UniProtKB/TrEMBL annotation:
Coiled-coil regions, chain positions: none
Protein name: UDP-glucose 4-epimerase
GO terms assigned for molecular function: UDP-glucose 4-epimerase activity
Domain of life assignment: Eukaryota
InterPro entries: NAD(P)-bd_dom, NAD(P)-bd_dom_sf, UDP_G4E
EC number, UniProt record: 5.1.3.-
Keyword Cytoplasm carried by entry: no
Top enzyme class: isomerase
SUPFAM superfamilies (alphabetical): NAD(P)-binding Rossmann-fold domains
NAD(P)-binding domain location: 59-380
Length: 395
């Protein structure tokens, strides 16, 4: 009987302690709620959810990627409010963290993880945020890969652009800066390429981009949207101050830019450089391209944004106006890195074209934009970043 009574007493005491802890937890929770309600920011909308006089809020799709992150950096430096949307399939969250560290003040930068192929998620982003403009970079962007995964490219580039346009129309966002490509021109008969050069793309990447352009142009004819389409050429370089650079995923090296392959060869990550195609009708048999520095490129985007006008469409080539062959590029890379890179010459890559370089006269005259960096300067800046980031952003 005493044993039973003692056990009952202990059980009652245990229950009492539990009840006391629950009451204490509830009291602390209520106190936190009261303090939160009493804070100055409680009940106020997020700065990103409202339009603000004197502040331009730009949605940067693909802002965790190579070009998009550099664009976001420039916009933030110029006091724009920036929202980055990226699904990180090709982008790098560490690049976003660099930006967050540089611009940590409230209302400057936010990151949203989302896939533009999800129309419901895209509409939610637009309904919860007040955007003044969209810079649309998000896209898979490798010519060789596009010949192997054509449907993926049409969905990712063309369909997703349609989703963005529908969201912009539904929520009254009136300015679009569209990231397009010289690949929409295909292989023209005459050089240099002007904005009037016929668009006859020869690979799924270029075709998907041209389809997206056509959708934008058709929509703009019956809207008051301000549209700027920038068709740019081969992008190289990195942030001159060393904050951002190009760090593609290892599995994409086969499809990546020649600058990345050159640096990988210089670092002995790969045994040498593979040059695909030596029988083109060019001065040395290798492809000729117009290499534009990423800092120059984002400067063109910012000038396009500043000059965008309601109901008007601007289409511009963004390049240096000078073509360099692959062999010339490799020699410049050898000079900058100080490494005698081994080169292996292979057959042509499917979907490639012999010679492409721009006539940038229109953007110079209308937007007062001119490329400033030379090929060697761009490679030198990019190589400096590579040496400081042997493992990409994870030093």
């Amino acid at each position: 009987m005493l044993m039973w009574a003692g056990t009952n007493y202990l059980e009652m005491k245990r229950k009492s302690n539990v009840s006391g802890k629950i009451i204490l937890a509830l009291a602390l929770t209520m106190l936190c709620i009261m303090l939160f309600k009493g804070s100055p920011s409680f009940g106020r909308p997020s700065p990103f959810s409202r339009l603000e006089s004197g502040v331009t809020h730009v949605l940067v799709t693909g802002g965790a990627g190579y070009i998009g992150s550099h664009a976001a950096l420039r916009l933030l430096k110029d006091s724009y409010r920036v929202t980055i949307v990226d699904n990180l399939s090709r982008g790098n969250m560490d690049a976003v963290k660099v930006l967050q560290g540089q611009f940590s003040e409230p209302g400057r930068l936010q990151f949203i993880f989302a896939d533009l192929g999800d129309a419901k998620a895209v509409n939610k982003i637009f309904s919860e945020n007040a955007f003044d403009a969209v810079m649309h970079f998000a896209a898979v962007a490798y010519v060789g890969e596009s010949t192997l995964e054509a449907l993926r490219y049409y969905h990712n580039i063309t369909s997703n652009t349609l989703t963005i346009l529908e969201a912009m129309a539904a929520h009254g966002v009136k300015t679009l800066i569209y990231s397009s490509t010289c690949a929409t021109y295909g292989e023209p008969d005459k050089m240099p390429i002007t904005e009037e050069t016929p668009q006859v793309p020869i690979n799924p990447y270029g075709k998907a981009k041209k389809m997206a352009e056509d959708i934008i142009l058709d929509f703009s004819r019956n809207s008051k949207m301000a549209v700027m389409i920038l068709r740019y050429f081969n992008v190289i370089g990195s942030d001159p101050e060393g904050r951002l650079g190009e760090a593609p995923r290892p599995e994409l090296r086969e499809h990546g830019r020649i600058s990345g392959a050159c640096f990988d060869a210089a670092r002995r990550i790969i045994p040498g450089l593979k040059v695909k195609g030596t029988d083109y009708k060019t001065r040395d048999g290798t492809c000729v391209r117009d290499y534009i520095d990423v800092t120059d490129l984002v400067d063109a985007h910012v000038k396009a944004l500043a000059n965008a006008k309601p109901g008007k469409v601007g289409i511009y080539n963004v390049g240096t106006g000078k073509g360099s062959s692959v062999k010339e590029f490799v020699e410049a890379c050898k000079k900058v890195t100080g490494v005698d890179i081994k080169v292996e010459y292979l057959d042509r890559r499917p979907g490639d074209y012999a010679e492409v370089y721009s006539d940038p006269s229109k953007i110079r005259l209308e937007l007062n934009w001119t490329a400033k960096y030379t090929l060697e300067e761009s490679l030198r800046t990019a190589w400096k970043w590579q040496k400081a980031h042997w493992n990409g952003y994870r030093i």
